[in-house]
Amino acid sequence: MYEPSLEDFFCVERCDLCGDCLSGCPEFGDDIVDASGTIERLIDGQYVREVLERCSSCMSCNIICPYECNPYGLILYRWHERSREKGLPLRASLVMPLEPGNAWHRVMEGLTGREKLLLDKWADLAREDIKGRALFAGCNLQIMPYLTESAIFEGFPIYGRPDLCCGEVYYRMGSFDKIDSVVTHLEQIYRELGINEVVAYCQACFNMLKNILPRYFDADFPFDVSYFGDLLAERILSGELQVAGKLKGLKVTVQDPCHSKLLGKEFQDRPRRVLEHLGCEVKEMAHTREMSLCCGLGHGAARFNPMDMARGIVRRLREARATGAEYLVVYCNSCDLLFSVGTQLTPFIIPVYHLNELVAKALGQELPRRNLNRARSMTKELFVKGAPKLLSRKRFWLERRYS
Ligand code: SF4
Ligand code: SF4
């Protein structure tokens, strides 16, 4: 029987109850009066509302903890227990990429004809060109396939199918029972695929496939994992792609995605080095790098409340705008999408660009700007077509599989 324990996710023995993880939390640390007592209550298994209903799953507390206890894992584990006991509100299924009628798949259905052809090609797992090394397009690239129509993808055959989900959203919500079945499914599929190096386009997929699933969910994948952003940065910084100084003088600020914090300082340095190589001036936000605020997606994990997500997006866009930068540069497609949704909700508008779009621009290849179109589609799926689920009081349980 798949039965994770708290100790799998959080090191109780090493924790000295200092409370630094909570008092230093960039989301609500200032409001925590007794951080030491609060973490003690969480460890004891109490339902600590001020944490469990406010955490944005930004992962910064893991970096703060001096003993590498993984306090974020403690929160995830308590969410896991909550979802087992009480189930999840139906509205959570809208953003879960493997649940029927989820918004990701609905947005894919509305893509342009050319983009749908790309998705059809990516879904053909019998192709010979993906044997060996291939680039994995997760759900957040499958809703923005236009981003791949650039020379920077040459030599990277792409594959991806809606069911090949890395499970990130489920992990972020503490829905561990579902991840167990995600792992089994991926192991089965990859055993037959012949891919021995998965190049993850998304840093969250990279961290899930390389670290989280093997470490916490016993995944045994028959492939190595690398990150497309690393490979691209190498090609740029070595001079193979001649883009030096091509965007000279452009002022940008950078959103560091949550998983980048767990992947190390170098992971955050590299996109900045690429931007500076392009000639951009990087202006940092008030919360940056390991202390970055989430783009808004993770704000939905605590209460599944879209208003929490909207507040998170607006707060972050406001910080980005305050830097005086001309562009907000992201290196995660989910951040791209969420901020693009946000530009429809707030006057704190700042154009959002994926780093790869700027690299393509520096190469003289302007990609179509469809982020706002995708954001409108997502907003419609969530708030208009998804309204019955948003307003429903029904709850559901994700599968609990036994093996
Ligand atoms: S994950 Fe982020 S928001 Fe949640 S407690 Fe840790 S630092 Fe705070
Ligand atoms: S998890 Fe780490 S930072 Fe948090 S109270 Fe324990 S030792 Fe301190």
Secondary-structure map:
Elements: H1 6-9, H2 20-23, H3 35-44, H4 49-52, H5 60-64, H6 71-86, E1 88-89, H7 103-109, H8 113-123, E2 132-136, H9 139-142, E3 158-159, H10 168-172, H11 176-193, E4 195-200, H12 203-217, E5 224-227, H13 228-237, E6 251-255, H14 258-262, H15 265-278, E7 281-282, H16 300-303, H17 306-322, E8 327-330, H18 333-342, E9 352-354, H19 355-362, H20 371-385, H21 387-391, E10 395-396
Parallel strand pairs: 2-3, 2-4, 4-5, 6-7, 6-8, 8-9
Antiparallel strand pairs: 1-10
Helix pairs in contact: 7-20, 13-15, 17-18, 18-20
One iron/sulfur cluster binds at residues 25, 27, 55-61, 72, 75.
Can you put this structure into words, describing what you see?
This protein is α/β, with parallel strands linked by helices and 403 residues long. It has three domains: 6-87, no CATH class; 90-232, Rossmann fold, CATH 3.40.50; 241-390, Rossmann fold. It contains 21 helices and ten strands. It has helices at 6-9, 20-23, 35-44, 49-52, 60-64, 71-86, 103-109, 113-123, 139-142, 168-172, 176-193, 203-217, 228-237, 258-262, 265-278, 300-303, 306-322, 333-342, 355-362, 371-385, 387-391, and strands at 88-89, 132-136, 158-159, 195-200, 224-227, 251-255, 281-282, 327-330, 352-354, 395-396. A four-stranded parallel beta sheet has the order 3-2-4-5. Strands 7-6-8-9 form a four-stranded parallel beta sheet, with helices on both faces. It has a two-stranded antiparallel ribbon with strand order 1-10. Helix 18 links the parallel strand 8 (327-330) and strand 9. The longest helix has 18 residues, at 176-193. It is globular and about 55 Å long. The relative contact order is 0.13. The chain binds iron/sulfur cluster (SF4) (2 copies). One iron/sulfur cluster is lined by residues 25, 27, 55-61, 72, 75.
